[in-house]
Amino acid sequence: MERFKNLILTCVGEGYSDVHITGGHLIVFRKHGFVNFHRSSKWSHEEVDRLVEGILTPRQLKILKGRSSVDLALSVSHVRLRINVFNTIRGLSIAIRILPGTIPSITGLNLHPSIQQIAGVRAGLVLICGPTGSGKSTTIAAVVDEINREKTVHVVTLEDPIEYRFSSKKSFIQQRELGTHMPSFEQGLIDVLREDPDVIVVGELREKETMRLALNAAESGHLVIASLHASNSEDALYRIFNSFPHEAQEAVRTQVAATLTWLLVQRLEFHHGAGFRVPLLSIMKGTSAVRNIIRENKLAQLESAMQTGKSDGMFTTEGYTKDYIDMLTSFSSPSDIFKPTPETVQEAPYFSPIIDQDAHRGVLKHSPSAMEESDETIETTAVANLDSKASSEDSGHYVIEEHTSLEELLNKIDKSGKYPK
Questions:
Q1: Which of 11, 14, 295, 345 could make an SS bond with 165 (beta carbons 3.0 to 4.6 A apart)?
Q2: The whole model's pTM is what?
Q3: Residue 352: inside a domain, yes or no?
């Protein structure tokens, strides 16, 4: 652990955004978006195993053993880390994203100052999009912190994992982590509407049912802020629409058109003048023109609407570069933003003994009503030493033991009468 702590402090001092540790291989780090090898540092397979045992909790070790990977976030030497441990041909490998100890501001992230206006939105859908590693989670954290400073509202976050910890300022903030405090984003969204929220943050829109519930929440008067993997505005909306059956897509388009307030797409690009990567954005807002384009399914016209919507605060990527990035004379350095600092949140995480901490491990739940309305496949998980017959009859869920064959599962489904072959 001492060697690991020293490695993390070195990475922060050198400005590395990511570091990879795998047995029998040189340490790999990423700086300014490029992967490099640390020629003088290598960990043995046994050392990696011992490190994993040192940083994981017993519950996380169970997850790792069960599915060969686990996500977590923790603080090491006052540096906040997002970690994924996974199994490879070299044994266990650790992918580490280095996060700032305190939540950065919107201006500190070199983002357009207009993004602060999101904090003033009362209801609707805000989408923060981009590829993996583009800083979506950090941008969302900065927006939530802006809300926390400016508004007296109740914010509930659904995250995977919890990366930035918030302390309540003007807002009352509660954070829930997938697998620890809820079994799925879907269940978290069902729960949150009974918890008196004003703002709902969804770590990622992945499944159709999660998208449906997020849209319903935005339509019912809540501000929903969510991330989505997409390379541009058109792609983001297509990802949502195409997640639904064809016959439902028109209704979904109408719902998105009515609720969408902001859609940001960001990526990190190396800026030669600054000497480091800066966020490059496109910004689309839910103007009447944009809503008509979405409602009429003419998404190819979005780029043109963004070009002509400059007066409304919209930018294409090219326009953002020309009108904002190229006009800046100075940038906040990532080495200042991401430097190791004591976390501002002093509350220690508490795990109630009333709750079974293993209850959500590896469980994928589905909504019976959702299954009846669509032709989705049945989501299941391999869990040993459980009575699959009792589980399916009592709870409506199928639990497959490690030795269960596909033929046996199909027979059970057919005999139940609930789902056709």
A1: 345
A2: 0.77
A3: no
Instruction: Please tell me the distance from the alpha carbon of residue 371 to that of residue 397, in angstroms, as a whole number.
Output: 11
Does the structure show a pLDDT above 90 at 15? no
CA–chain centroid gap for 41, Å, is 31
Which domain, by its residues, includes 410?
377-416
Residue 249 near residue 260, CB atoms below 8 Å: no
Number of domains in the chain: 3
* Separation between Cα atoms, residue 18 and residue 81, nearest integer Å: 10
Chain segment 322-347, per-residue pLDDT in tens? 999 999 999 998 878 776 565 667 67
My answer on whether 70 and 29 are in the same domain is yes
Judge if 66 and 205 occupy the same domain. Answer: no
Strands of 187-327, DSSP E: 199-202, 223-228, 260-271, 276-285
What letter does residue 315 receive in the DSSP assignment? B
- On whether residue 336 sits in a domain, the answer given is no
Can you say whether the dihedral through the CA atoms of 193, 195, 196, 200 is positive or negative? Answer: negative
